[in-house]
């Protein structure tokens, strides 16, 4: 390949799972990259969401290929890979416990989002991550370079721009007119603090969640309760409804509205809503991009993660696929840059990585869409027991 004189100026927008892994993969291979994040600091967002179970061939691989196996094992919870499926009567129909000792690849340890972000930040130079940089506009120059303008007044010109900026990506319109749309499923996230989880009257709820997750579903509705690392239980209560379904802002009213929705569900399942903390209730309408979305390569810019394949959480694969995108895109760019590739050769490498992304994301967006129909369909929970088995086998 024809060597170039200086490395390309690379900007990654968004310090979520996909952007963090891409940035990590580049800097670990000696390729300079700058990661821009709109949050003011790593600890800025009090609410960073629940835990993620990282699959062997995607989320775990993205960490292990960057030397973070020990760091991941130190903060993840293999025992969190435990799941129970039931109907609204809370009778357990399927219990899944990972095959820990025999097949590590069958195990998907849980890691809190905050811990995941921290182990990656600890492995990259602190000054390569720019906090408080909200991208506000991008100007293409027609030669593959782009000028980025940030809300704090900073501007910069880059040779490679990667949008890892999530569901409402500002970079996506540069490569595709596709837009996210409401999935038809809405609801809420409800968090129960550890001291409440530990109370004697919560023994049945603790037993149902165990160290992992309970999926209760029936009649187009779902309660999904998961144990987090500090002992709290985070519940997602979902049902079919309009995009503008209103969750009252008053916590007591919000719990009452949700409980009315789940009227007739077993008392142990209702506890996951009843005992939610006042400051732990969030509206969660679910959005998605068209399953199997792809685009024609555009020089100098690409997108990864939710920006490229936003899916509902019904296969638990959004972050896993996003991390795999970050790894594959990072490996492709690093290989090209370290081989002294010309601009054209680098674009070919990025295009190839996009093709891989299309293949993997087509598979998982399709499985996710099928799971969503199954979970909220008339045959749940029985149909879901089958879908769950299938998804675990394929992953
Ligand atoms: C309720 C729920 C539960 C889920 N559970 C799971 C699960 O169990 N397993 C799983 O694998 N996936 C799960 N997912 C999906 C997972 O959360 C996403 O797929 C994953 O976070 C996508 O990572 P990302 O880095 O692409 O985007 P994000 O995590 O959304 O990160 C994007 C980052 O970009 C930043 N950003 C956005 N705009 C700008 C801007 N203009 N300038 C600078 N920075 C910007 C944001 O602040 C953010 O930090 C779940 C999703 C939801 C909604």
List of distinct ligands in this structure: flavin-adenine dinucleotide
Mean pLDDT, nearest integer?
A: 93
Number of domains: 2
Q: Level of helix content?
A: 25-40%
CATH homologous superfamily label of the largest domain: FAD/NAD(P)-binding domain
Keywords:
395 residues; alpha/beta; FAD/NAD(P)-binding domain; D-Amino Acid Oxidase, Chain A, domain 2; 2 domains; 12 helices; 19 strands; binds flavin-adenine dinucleotide
Characterize this entry briefly.
This protein has 395 residues and is α/β, with parallel strands linked by helices.
Overview of the molecule:
The chain is an alpha/beta fold. The chain is built from twelve helices and 19 strands. The chain has a seven-stranded mixed beta sheet, sandwiched between helices. Strands 7-2-1-11-19 form a five-stranded parallel beta sheet, with helices on one face. Strand 9 and strand 10 form a beta hairpin. Helix 1 runs parallel beside helix 4. The longest helix is centred in the last third of the chain and has 33 residues. The protein is globular and about 65 Å long. The two termini are 37 Å apart. The mean pLDDT is 93. The structure holds flavin-adenine dinucleotide. Flavin-adenine dinucleotide binds next to helix 1, strand 2, strand 3, helix 9 and helix 10. The site of flavin-adenine dinucleotide has 33 residues, from helix 1, strand 2, strand 3, helix 9 and helix 10.
């Amino acid at each position: 390949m024809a060597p170039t004189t200086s490395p390309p100026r690379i900007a990654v927008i968004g310090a979520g799972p996909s952007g963090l892994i891409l940035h990590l993969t580049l800097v670990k291979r000696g390729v300079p990259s700058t990661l821009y994040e709109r949050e003011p600091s790593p600890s800025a967002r009090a609410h960073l969401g629940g835990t993620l179970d990282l699959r062997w061939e995607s989320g775990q691989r993205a960490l292990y290929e960057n030397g973070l196996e020990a760091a991941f094992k130190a903060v993840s919870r293999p025992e969190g890979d435990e799941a129970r499926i039931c109907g609204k009567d809370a009778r357990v129909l399927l219990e899944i416990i990972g095959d820990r000792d025999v097949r590590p690849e069958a195990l998907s340890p849980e890691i809190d989002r905050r811990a995941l972000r921290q182990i990656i930040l600890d492995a990259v130079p602190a000054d390569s991550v720019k906090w408080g940089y909200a991208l506000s506009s991008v100007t293409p120059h027609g030669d593959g370079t782009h000028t980025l303008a940030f809300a704090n007044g900073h501007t910069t010109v880059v040779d490679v721009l990667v949008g890892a900026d999530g569901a409402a990506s500002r970079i996506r319109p540069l490569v595709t007119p596709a837009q996210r749309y409401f999935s038809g499923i809405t609801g809420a996230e409800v968090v129960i603090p550890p001291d409440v989880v530990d109370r004697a009257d919560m023994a049945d709820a603790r037993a149902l969640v165990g160290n992992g997750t309970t999926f209760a579903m029936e009649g187009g509705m779902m309660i999904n309760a998961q144990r987090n690392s500090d002992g709290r239980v985070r519940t997602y209560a979902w049902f079919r409804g309009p995009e503008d379904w209103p969750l009252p802002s008053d916590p007591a009213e919000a719990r009452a509205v949700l409980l009315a929705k789940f009227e007739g569900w077993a008392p142990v399942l209702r506890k996951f809503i009843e005992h939610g903390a006042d400051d732990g209730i969030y509206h969660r309408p679910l959005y998605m991009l068209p399953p199997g979305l792809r685009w024609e390569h555009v020089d100098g810019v690409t997108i990864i993660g939710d920006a490229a394949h936003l899916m509902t959480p019904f296969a638990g694969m959004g972050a896993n696929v996003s991390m795999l995108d970050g790894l594959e895109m990072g490996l492709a760019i690093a290989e090209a840059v370290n081989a002294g590739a010309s601009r054209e050769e680098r674009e070919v490498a990025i295009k190839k990585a996009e093709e891989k992304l299309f293949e993997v994301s087509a598979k998982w967006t399709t499985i996710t869409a099928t799971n969503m129909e199954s979970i909220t369909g008339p045959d749940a929970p029985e149909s879901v027991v089958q879908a769950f088995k299938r998804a675990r086998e394929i992953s």
